Amino acid sequence: MTTEGTKMKVQDHAGKTASSINQWSIDTHTILAKEHCRSARELAHRAGVRSYHISQALKHIRSARVSILGEVSRLGSNHPQYATAVQKLKALDAKTRARRCAA
Residues 6 or more apart from 71 whose CB is under 8 A from it? Predict the structure, then answer.
């Protein structure tokens, strides 16, 4: 075999090796990108679920507040249970603020 033939074989082998390395690099980046997308989707799903639960909790708190307000107005300020109802209302408002801050 001539030097020219050996040189061609070496260049061909080097080209195939470089191509193989490039393909491996592309495959690796593709896998990493897919994993990143999967993680991002999972985080978005968890955030959505958390947001939904907070929204539902706030809805229940609002309906409880309306109920307590009805109780407060029905009792009148002279009734012995009035102070308890007002305390419930204040506690509910504090809970609402805490939930909104968490959202």
Answer: 85
